[in-house]
Amino acid sequence: QLGYNYKMSDIAAAIGVVQLRKLNWIIKQRRAASIEYREVIEEHLPFLEPVYESPDCLHIFQSYVALVKPEYKKYRNYIIQRFLDHRVQANIGTYALHREPVFLCLQPCPVSDDIFHRAIALPMFQHVGFKKIINGGKAICKELSVLMSKNSQELYISPSGNGNFSEIQAL
Length: 171
Prior knowledge:
Strand content: 5-15%
Number of helices: 5
Oligomer: single chain
Structural class: alpha+beta
Helix content: 40-55%
Radius of gyration: 18 Å
Number of strands: 6
């Protein structure tokens, strides 16, 4: 059953008030990192699409969620695991809420499904290690070209209990 729990401790509220004083600086840093992400993706990670930002909006980049290009869609979990292997904290970018039991929707939601299967959240903290991301991305590019040239079966990589995508299985 869906419910709400809006409890916040006094300590969490005090930290939030202090963080609000730095909000403009935090947004500026995240937007700068997003520009660098766009450049890194366009130059070094041909299997990803950078985040789209509408010209009439100001994206604050609470997270950086890139999309795997459609032709690489079946390798999304493999890409996440390989980033993790290269010490880049990648993860599933978003969930298809219509598939979650509490929100179960019987109507098809093809756009939501597509984005769920293609979205990758990349690290978005103050000192993002772009060199690690580039090096990991280059290795992943080589591996993907081998996988695609062999016309391999679709891969399923399931998250293990520790959050890593450890089990690789052919479907």
